[in-house]
């Protein structure tokens, strides 16, 4: 699939078919996610892959009761690894670069899903403390996004975008 086609066809999918996703497909998606750029090539991000029904339900509850998360066959929680980035860049690495590393990897992950015929949705609204506890995250790992993944059971229409002239500034604001 052409990159522009993948970018243009990506939608937030909140309804999934019950068809399971093969482990080899998830492995490819995660490899693509980790190919995202990162500060100092430290790859300051980690991925928690969740397929257990009860854990997905707990994550959905922690995500402000967004039930569709639990209905996805696979949920990937993308975490910023603050310690890995701090080792080279100090506080700025921990508080900014690791978050960016995780966000860039999340975008790669979602585009790879499109390439595999899968749908996904980036979920940023969740109780960090609850997700942290559910997944047993160390203090140096920050959950940045919850991404439910599965075969789409819907085909949402494209959402509107701001006019490019409104958001692009040349030379100065």
Give an account of the 3D structure.
The chain is an alpha+beta fold and 173 residues long. The chain has a single domain, classed as NADH Oxidase. The protein has helices at residues 3-9, 23-34, 53-62, 68-71, 82-115, 128-135, 164-167, and strands at 45-50, 74-81, 119-120, 141-150. Strands 1-2-4-3 form a four-stranded antiparallel beta sheet. The mean pLDDT is 96.
Number of domains: 1
How many helices in DSSP terms? 7
Please summarize the sheet with the most strands. Answer: 4 strands, antiparallel
**Cα radius of gyration in angstroms:** 17 Å
Can you tell me the CATH topology? NADH Oxidase
Distance between the termini: 36 Å
Q: Please give the order of strands in the largest beta sheet.
A: 1-2-4-3
CATH first level: Alpha Beta
Low-confidence stretches: none
**Any idea what the CATH architecture is?**
3-Layer(aba) Sandwich
Helix content: 40-55%
Number of strands: 4
What is the CATH homology-level superfamily?
NADH Oxidase
Q: Assembly state here?
A: single chain
Mean pLDDT: 96
């Amino acid at each position: 699939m052409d990159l522009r086609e993948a970018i243009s066809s990506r939608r937030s999918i909140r309804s999934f078919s019950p068809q399971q996703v093969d482990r080899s497909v998830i492995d490819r998606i995660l490899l693509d996610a980790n190919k995202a750029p990162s500060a100092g090539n430290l790859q300051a991000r980690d991925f928690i892959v969740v397929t257990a029904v009860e854990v997905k339900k707990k994550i959905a509850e922690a995500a402000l009761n967004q039930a569709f998360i639990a209905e996805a066959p696979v949920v990937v929680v993308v975490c910023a690894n603050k310690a890995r980035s701090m080792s080279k860049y100090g506080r700025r690495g921990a508080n900014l670069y690791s978050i960016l590393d995780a966000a860039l990897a999340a975008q790669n992950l979602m585009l790879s899903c499109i390439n595999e015929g899968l749908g996904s949705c980036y979920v940023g609204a969740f109780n960090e403390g609850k997700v942290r506890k559910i997944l047993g995250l160390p203090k140096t790992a920050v959950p940045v996004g919850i991404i439910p993944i599965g075969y789409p059971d819907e085909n949402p229409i494209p959402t509107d975008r701001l006019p490019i002239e409104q958001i692009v500034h040349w030379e100065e604001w």
